[in-house]
Amino acid sequence: MDKTRDALSRYAEEGVLSADAYASALRLAGVTPDADAWRRFIDRLLVISGALLVAVGVIFFVAFNWQALGRFAKFGLLEAMVLLPTAYALFAGLATVRAQAALLFAVLALGGLLALVGQTYQTGADNYELFLAWAVLALPWVLAGRWAPLWAIWWTLINLTLLLYLFQVLDPLRILFFGRMRPGAVALLNLAGLAAFEWAYAHIDGLRTRWLARYCVLIALAAGTFAALMYIFESSHREDNGAAFAIYCAMILVGAAFYQTLRRDLFPLASGVISLIVVVTGWFGEVFLDKHESFGAFTLIAFFVIGSTIGATWWLRELNRKWEEPAALAREQPA
Amino acid sequence: MSALPIADVFAELRARGLLADAQVPPLAPVPAGTPWYVRVMAGFGAWLGGLFLLGSMMALFSVVAKSPGGMLTLGVFALAGAFGLYQVARGSDALQQLGLACSMAGQFAFGFGMEEMFHWDMAALSGFLFVLQVGLVVAMNGVLHRYLSALFAAIAAYWFLYKAQAVPLGGAVLAALVTWIWLNESAWTAARRAAFWKPVGYALALALLFWQAPLSLRWLFNWGREDFVFAVPGWVAPLAYALCLAAAVGWLARQQASRAWPRWVAAALLVSTVAWLAPGLLAALLVLILGAAAGNRILVGLALLAAAWYLGAYYYQMQITLLEKSAVMLATGAVLIGLRFALSWLWPKGQSHE
Fold it and tell me: Does A16 touch chain B (CB under 8 A)?
């Protein structure tokens, strides 16, 4: 589709197509929506965003803790908001847009229900336990939905669970941030998620989207980059951060090989390049700038950053060009 | 109608009288385009490289760089160098990247120099930076540079308007600009202005989506607890979002089903009314509709991300209670679901042009 758009826009820029002809051409080629596509889009937009906003409204309502509404009325309301959409989704057929919107609603309402349990009975549980329970209990809905947005929400819950555990349980006073916060654990978790979503991409129809894997790549790389910078700058804690740094190095090497050969995707490669530039620049800064704040050190780092960006841009564009060739595209189609 | 191959598209255009000749002229081969995330990587590299390049220039001209005039001179030379590089770069990634880094260094030096020389306050400095960035949008002939300069111009405008107590005015202007730019994509493409308007359109759409962000972050991180008093009232922004949304929806509906468009305008105004207290949602909805109309997945993705972010940040905003926020969300969600059930009335089958 992008190639068609590019070709048509070049015809417009070369004066072959007028503005009106170009607009019509885009619609005829399916780049911009025709009446049927608009109708489908609006249908999805209204159902999904409507369900999402009502569910968010319910969560806000629970958080407000309105005293005029009794405990049992609140529980009854929230349980109904979990059960009724679930029943509706089963009735409507799980593969339909309405069913997916209903499952999304049920998953969010489930979080509201768990928050209400914590609010009402004051269990003393840590926040991470709420998110852990939410993620575990939501799994049947997520599995049934086979829908990427549900999996993205679920994976966010898993990440929040780990982050809250690291911050609130391992380091409640925030005084040992560098020593005990474990970015390596976050990276590992998301590498496991990445492997699972890559498998799902190849084997499950409803999850044939690159965005779930890319979401994991971004979090894993952010955590890995943070771990590598800690390793470089916190020399007194090297033994704490050594394993995380090793995970980072392995992640970069294996990721570069995997995404160039087995699963051709420029997004993780470009993200990895940004991460590497940051880490190597940090290392140059630590080695050179501390000791000699001079023209030479600044120039070396500036030219490293600019040169590596130019090289990486060229490399990625070449890969893109090779992969865009018809024979390569035919090989890459999922079975 | 299913998507047609280009040859059939030309034949159909000829049949509709939009084209004199149905023959598809050959296009000269061009290299495959650069995906947006590779451009993000290149922009980040140029920004970081520009910082160190500035350090390098300051170290080289250490005597000069100690005075405001010297910094200004460094900045002017770096910007002039960047301009020259862009003039000769045409198609060379390496020269464009070097030009961008040079420009970044020049902007830092020029900005610091002006601030040192005139001891400006935040309002004056951000006003100056806004003018500088707008000038760079026009002068620098590179897509990535234009995108970054338009984005920096929007950020500078935000701080200027913040100090002038007129932040809502910026949201209103941005909404109008973004609506105009993306509804006129075919016009500016055919006028050979895509290299200018496309990066500007993306940057302004991003700025519009996150225009409410500093206010939300302020509550989240407890920045400055003083109450906001705006000389321009807060309702200006949601009013502009609502009008732009209604105009965009009406214009698009008129193209698809001419008799139904007043109903769509009414529907857009109804949604805007119930979501009035959540202006970030209205901005996201506006960009989402514009992105869908343009078949632009980047705009659609940005709008969805911004909506998700806004819903999370909205929870922490303190200007209205959780009960009111809950009512806003429930009412907006109920109206959207209600509109779904009224879809056959809003857009009766058989009323489409195609």
Answer: yes
Name the A residues in 68-107 with CB < 8 Å from any B CB.
Answer: none
Compute the count of residue pairs across chains A and B with CB atoms less than 8 Å apart: 260
Q: Whole-angstrom Cα distance, residue B41 to residue B300?
A: 21
Q: Mean pLDDT per 10-residue run, chain A (335 residues)? A: 82 88 91 88 93 92 82 90 94 88 94 89 82 96 92 96 85 54 87 96 89 96 93 78 89 95 93 95 86 77 92 91 68 48
On whether the CB atoms of residues A101 and A48 are closer than 8 A, the answer is yes
Residue ranges covered by each domain of chain A: 1-32, 45-170, 176-335
The verdict on A328 touching B (C-beta cutoff 8 Å) is no
**8 Å CB contact of A302 and B53:** yes
**Chain A residues in contact with B192 (beta carbon < 8 A):** 13
Q: How far apart are CA B331 and CA B344, in angstroms?
A: 21
Q: How far apart are CA B195 and CA B184, in angstroms?
A: 14
Q: With an 8 Å Cβ cutoff, are B343 and A39 in contact?
A: yes
Of the candidates A183, A286, A186, A279, the one whose C-alpha atom is nearest the C-alpha of residue A227 is A183
Instruction: Find the range with the poorest average confidence among A140-149, A245-254, B19-28, B170-179.
Output: B19-28
Cβ contact A270:B38 at 8 Å: yes
**What CA–CA distance (Å, rounded) separates B114 from B127?**
12
Tokens of A52: 């999402």
Q: Taking the model in full, what pTM does it have?
A: 0.87
The interaxial angle of helices B167-183 and B279-293, nearest 10 deg, is 10
* B226 backbone φψ class: left, alpha, beta (φ>0; ψ -120 to 50): beta
Task: Supply φ then ψ for residue A146, to 5 degrees.
Answer: 45, 45
Interchain contact, B3 vs A13, CB within 8 Å: no
**B194 CB contacts (<8 Å, ≥6 apart)?**
A9, A13, B188
Q: B50 is written with which tokens?
A: 């520009």
Closest CA to B130 of B102, B104, B111, B109: B111
> Which chain B residue has the Cα nearest residue A66?
B323
Identify the pLDDT of residue B173: 97
ipTM of the shown complex: 0.86
Place of tokens 């214009």: B251
Do the Cβ atoms of A304 and A284 come closer than 8 Å?
Answer: yes
Residue spans per domain, chain B: 33-164, 165-354
B119: left (phi over 0), alpha (psi -120 to 50) or beta: left
Query: How many CB atoms neighbour CB A202 within 10 A?
Result: 11
Class of residue A287 by CB neighbours under 10 A (exposed 0-12, middle 13-18, buried 19+): middle
